[in-house]
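Before relying on records like the one below, remember that each one covers exactly one chain. Contacts with other chains, cofactors or solvent are not represented anywhere in the record.
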Amino acid sequence: MKLVMILAVAIMASTDAKAFDVECSEFRPLMQDRQLKRPEKPFCASSYLPFTDSLDFDTCRREVQQFKASVEKYLACVESESKQAVAEYNDVVASFNRRAQQ
């Protein structure tokens, strides 16, 4: 157990924080991609046909609830990405200003 903890700390220390992005990993087809993939809409909710029975209704309802949970996670991810972008911008401006004052 201690070995696992030591390895985890070593990996986190040697990896850029943006590369070790657990919050958004569900929405990145490849971890190194910056592009985020939105959650897939449940097909059953947009069908024009009525539900065939209560099982069909319950199955679709569960899919819609899962979609809602995925959208909430996606929004948290986008918020995190936004904060990272602002922080990166502020770092660039501060670096530029330091260089301009030399």
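Confidence is low (pLDDT under 50) at residues 3-19.
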